[in-house]
Design a protein that fits this description.
There is one protein chain. The protein has 593 residues and is an alpha/beta fold. The chain has three domains: 235 residues, 4-Layer Sandwich (Glutamine Phosphoribosylpyrophosphate, subunit 1, domain 1), CATH 3.60.20; 169 residues, Rossmann fold, CATH 3.40.50.10490; 149 residues, Rossmann fold, CATH 3.40.50. The protein is 35% helix and 22% strand. The protein has 18 helices and 25 strands. The strands form four sheets. It has an eight-stranded antiparallel β-sheet with strand order 3-2-4-1-10-9-11-15, with helices on one face. The protein has a seven-stranded antiparallel β-sheet with strand order 5-6-7-8-12-13-14, covered by helices on one side. Helix 1 runs antiparallel to helix 2, helix 7 runs parallel beside helix 13 and helix 14 runs parallel beside helix 18. The structure holds 5-amino-5-deoxy-1-O-phosphono-D-mannitol. 5-amino-5-deoxy-1-O-phosphono-D-mannitol binds next to helix 9 and helix 16.
Length: 593
């Protein structure tokens, strides 16, 4: 995790570094810091959010600098552990995102050589190694230091009196933003969108040296050329646009996300994935992901098995990458909003080892996952800043619907109905967004409890998982998602007046069964909130509160139900005064295993 930035140009670095860092706080926010070449190197770092830092940091004059916002992995969030880190002389400063796995050995050797360490971090070995190899050439010293290092890194380095930035990456993201007489470095695109939309994506093993004269990139000791890409995201897309939180803005963007993703893929003449051979060869599909993306994968299983008629296995990437077995040549979809999730990257490497064809579904162009997969399908959600995934989940579902429909074996009439419904989906989601009064009431009620269950069946079982994940993540209420039929196999012992149950009531063949489950829960005195289709009067007799969602073809019920549960989690967290966009202990891009 963590976000890093760098600047070299003709403007003062400090304010640019801080404004860029504020766009990377989704990557970590337990402390932050900057260092600027300024008559030596001057630095300021502390256990602060970037906004507080902007208020109180002393002004440092200088046009070359680096910055960091931290998600602590190695060493507690303290001022000393915050980045940048320095060598013994204070003439070399480094910001780092990643994990140096062999740091204990390196640290001990450096201590034996007389280096003094002040922090508990793995990162601090980097400036000391650079110091060890420094003979007047910062670039060379960084190159040599990196040869000693094992693990993952994106780093930016400055040296006292050096009018340059040295950067490098391995298994952690790093981009270079190319401006007019100024150059930026960042972990991710939103950090630099205010200044430029031209970027270079660095690849693993790249070392870049950025000076006033230009950008030089080397790999394996040889100078190479990396293309510039134009970013199509607008500056506004990465701003709050008047909404109280990014999460609320991102929830409200979902009708557009559905339209954008569908218009992109429905216009394609060629299918991009060969599912046809798969069916003939009697093989299966494997879907791998983490968190919310895993829940999208579970929905994908139901719709692909239903429409395409091939068996689909869905696995948690962190489990699969360590313990999973897979037949050779399986077709695997890996789903990751950020495209940087370490567990997913590890799973892809394992799949490639047994000649599986890997298709990445990601929202971030040029992300690590897109670089190592055989093919990439991009979701068109635009930048998602809030740590809680919302619009990216809906965009992932859209890609999965589109894939399933492209290879569907259902009859033409059914397919035409599905297509028609799909076109109406944005306006139905809009209706949800415009008529959320019942959700707000339920949220006010829910906010007083500490334990909640979400239950669903079939296609809406993954939505129960997603509803629970969203609620616990941002409101800190303990929430669990369950297949409705499983509740009686253990969790019933927890039911009672203080444990509400939220039922996702599908308007399909699951309706009668879930009604039975609702009655069982009622008999145990748990307060009941039902999400149900418009016009379902019958259910009111059995539940305490109702959230009405528009009627849709049952196959699309995960979409409208998810939007309702996102709003429920959002309003509940707001009621409990939680820091919605940046929940404690979390980060958006989980680049550690
Ligand atoms: O970037 P990814 O989709 O790979 O991230 C996976 C999870 O970390 C992520 O979905 C997480 O569960 C969400 N922030 C939850 O809202």
């Amino acid at each position: 995790m963590c976000g890093i930035v760098g600047y070299i140009g003709d403007k003062q670095a400090q304010s640019i570094l801080l404004s860029a860092l504020s766009m990377l706080e989704y990557r970590g926010y337990d402390s932050c810091g900057i260092a600027v070449v300024s008559n030596g190197i001057k630095s300021y770092k502390n256990v602060l959010r970037v906004a507080e830092m902007k208020e109180i940091a002393p002004q440092i004059i200088g046009t070359v600098g680096i910055g960091h916002t931290r998600w602590a992995t190695c060493g507690e969030p303290t001022r000393v552990n915050a980045h940048p880190h320095f060598d013994c002389t204070g003439n070399i400063a480094v910001v780092h995102n990643g994990v140096i796995t062999n740091y204990p050995v390196l640290k001990q050797k450096l201590i034996n050589d007389g280096h003094e360490f002040v922090s508990d971090t793995d990162t601090e070995v980097i400036p000391h190694l650079i110091e060890k190899y420094y003979k007047g050439d910062l670039e060379k010293a960084v190159e040599l230091a990196l040869l000693d290092i094992q693990g993952s890194y994106a780093i930016a380095v400055i040296g006292a009196g050096e009018n340059k930035l040295v950067v490098a990456r391995k298994d952690s993201p790093l981009i270079i933003g190319v401006g007019d007489r100024e150059t930026f470095v960042a972990s991710d695109v939103p950090a630099i969108l205010d200044y430029t939309n031209q970027v270079i994506y660095l690849d693993d093993g790249d070392i870049g040296v950025i000076t006033g004269d230009g950008i030089k990139i080397k790999k394996d000791g040889l100078e190479i050329h990396r293309e510039e890409h134009k970013i199509l995201w607008s500056v506004e897309a990465a701003q709050k646009a008047g909404y109280e939180h990014f999460m609320l803005k991102e929830i409200h963007e979902q009708p557009k996300v559905i339209r954008d993703t569908l218009s992109e893929y429905t216009q394609m003449s060629e299918p991009i994935v060969d599912l046809e051979n798969l069916r003939e060869d009697d093989r299966s599909i494997l879907i791998l992901a983490c968190g919310t993306s895993y829940n999208a994968g579970l929905v994908g299983k139901y719709i692909m098995e239903d429409l395409v008629g091939v068996p689909v296995r869905v696995e948690i990437a962190s489990e699969f990458s360590c313990y999973g077995q897979t037949p050779e040549k399986t077709l695997a979809f890996v789903i990751s909003q950020s495209g940087e999730t370490a567990d997913v990257l590890k799973a892809i490497r394992k799949l490639k080892g047994v000649q599986c064809h890997v298709v990445a579904v990601t929202n971030v162009v040029g992300s690590s996952i897109s670089r190592i997969a055989d093919q990439t399908i991009y979701t068109r959600a635009g930048p998602e800043i809030s740590v809680a995934a919302t619009k990216s989940f809906i965009a992932q579902l859209m890609v999965l619907y589109w894939l399933a429909m492209s290879y569907s074996k259902v009859d033409a009439k059914r397919l035409a109905d599905i297509l028609l419904e799909l076109r109406q989906l944005p306006s139905k989601v809009q209706w949800m967004l415009d008529n959320g009064e019942d959700i707000l009431q339920c949220a006010r009620y829910l906010a007083r409890f500490e334990n909640v269950f979400f239950i669903g069946r079939g296609l809406n079982y993954p939505i129960a998982l997603e509803g629970a994940l969203k609620l616990k993540e941002i409101s800190y209420i303990h929430a669990e998602g369950y297949a409705a039929g499983e509740l009686k196999h253990g969790p019933f012992s927890l039911l009672g007046e203080n444990t509400p149950v939220i039922t996702i009531t599908g308007q399909d063949s699951t309706y009668e069964s879930i009604l039975t489950n609702i009655k069982e829960v009622k008999a145990r005195k748990s307060p009941l909130i039902a999400l149900t289709g418009d016009g379902d009067e019958a259910i009111k007799e059995f539940v305490d509160m109702v959230i009405t969602v528009p009627r849709v073809d049952p196959i699309f019920s995960p979409v409208v139900n998810t939007v309702a549960l996102q709003l429920l989690a959002y309003y509940t967290a707001r009621e409990r005064d939680c820091p919605i966009d940046f929940p404690r202990n979390l980060a958006k891009s989980v680049t550690v295993e």
